[in-house]
DNA sequence: GTCTATAATCAGATAGAC
DNA sequence: GTCTATCTGATTATAGAC
């Protein structure tokens, strides 16, 4: 949405930033408009309501996030092992969130606060991406490289919640985003007590 | 807060429930009052503002959660191994969230949306509990039972985010809370790819 | 396509009776 | 300690000029 600079796109970008930083109720139309270089009523020339604007940001965030992760997994080719694909997805997810994409961070921040009907629609749009994660997890269990003692749904919920959290607490400093991504993958796949090559 | 049934306590209980279910902006004073068996203006006899009420719920949630977890860890005695203590804390945290305590779930739900100054105060109250987790993690690394290749702060942030998430997605059904707790501990400590006794 | 002015709504908060 | 009635302020949304 950043490749063209028309009014509609500037509003969406500004809304994504505001939603990420301040949440649904905290993102005022006046502030969103200011970020887009206009005043609040001008938004209504491009969107019929705040809800419609928010929903567009959600859909765009889901689309961007899923496109990025699927691309980073599928580039491995059809013969990549399930655990290699899962690890690539984990790393790609963190990389993308910490790359500063406001749309995907906005989804993680405000999803729970959406009005019921909108949340249902957003969830429906998210479902194919959710299934993609489920398939990665189930495939790793099916070929014996992952623990079959863990429930695939529980793993998926915990995994996504853990990854999504990083955009709320990460601050540039000691560790670079790529290092956070590696630590997340190591923690999720091998565990904090895990003894793997090179770890003590 | 549920052992006495005075007006103040009923309001706090109702506020915790509403905050957990609907978030900060979604929890209206009129609804909180209704849950306490009164009308909105009556709340002001017990609390000077909605913000004060919310802050009390946050403080109570932190207190309950930390008291429960510390008790479940310290009952192991002074000679328990660091990894045993850490696992007990993980299991206790999930158990408590899924036991239906609205106060601790409310904290996880609305913390990010709190006004800046209140969030600072709540964070300060949380810090000793946060340090408790940090000590559990560092102790496990220090005695060699946990990976020293992982950053202790990153592990703590990911771990707490993952555990906190369960109150938003768990629904009674196939798995009992105690089973979710065990799965969380296995996933965090041994990893999804981890091969431990009994796992495939 | 953006503006100024204003309406409409809603939720937090206050006043004062009982 | 709770109520009814009201006030205040903030925010979404509309009307209509430019």
- What is the strand tally of chain A? 0
As an assembly, this protein is homodimer
Report the structural category of chain A: mainly alpha
Overall 3D form of chain A: elongated
Beta-strand content of chain A: under 5%
Summarize the amount of helix of chain A as a percent range. Answer: 55-70%
Supply the CATH superfamily name of chain A: Tetracycline Repressor, domain 2
How would you describe what is shown here?
2 copies of one chain form a homodimer. Chain A contains 8 helices and no strands. The model of chain A has no long low-confidence stretch (mean pLDDT 95). Chain A is an all-alpha fold. Helix content of chain A is 68%, strand content 0%. The first copy, chain A, has helices at 7-26, 29-35, 50-74, 82-98, 102-110, 116-142, 152-169, 177-190. In chain A, helix 4 (82-98) packs antiparallel against helix 6, helix 4 (82-98) runs parallel beside helix 7 and helix 6 packs across helix 7 (152-169). Chain A has one domain: Orthogonal Bundle (Tetracycline Repressor, domain 2). Chains A and B meet through helix 1, helix 7 and helix 8 of A and helix 1, helix 7 and helix 8 of B. The structure holds a DNA duplex (18 and 18 nucleotides).
């Amino acid at each position: 949405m950043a490749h063209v600079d028309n009014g509609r796109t500037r509003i969406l970008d500004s809304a994504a930033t505001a939603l990420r930083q301040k949440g649904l109720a905290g993102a005022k139309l006046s502030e969103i408009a200011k970020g887009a270089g206009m005043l609040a009523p001008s938004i209504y020339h491009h969107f019929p309501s705040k809800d419609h604007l928010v929903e567009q940001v959600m859909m765009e965030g889901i689309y961007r996030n899923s496109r990025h992760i699927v691309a980073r997994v599928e580039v491995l080719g059809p013969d990549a092992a399930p655990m290699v694909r899962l690890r690539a997805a984990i790393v790609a997810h963190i990389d993308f969130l910490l790359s500063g994409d406001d749309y995907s961070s906005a989804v993680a921040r405000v999803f729970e606060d959406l009005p019921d009907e909108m949340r249902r629609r957003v969830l429906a749009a998210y479902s194919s991406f959710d299934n993609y994660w489920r398939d990665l997890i189930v495939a790793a269990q099916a070929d014996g490289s992952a623990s079959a003692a863990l429930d695939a749904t529980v793993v998926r919920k915990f995994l996504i919640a853990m990854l999504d959290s990083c955009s709320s607490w990460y601050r540039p400093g000691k560790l670079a985003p790529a290092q956070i991504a590696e630590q997340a993958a190591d923690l999720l796949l091998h565990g904090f007590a895990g003894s793997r090559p090179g770890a003590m």
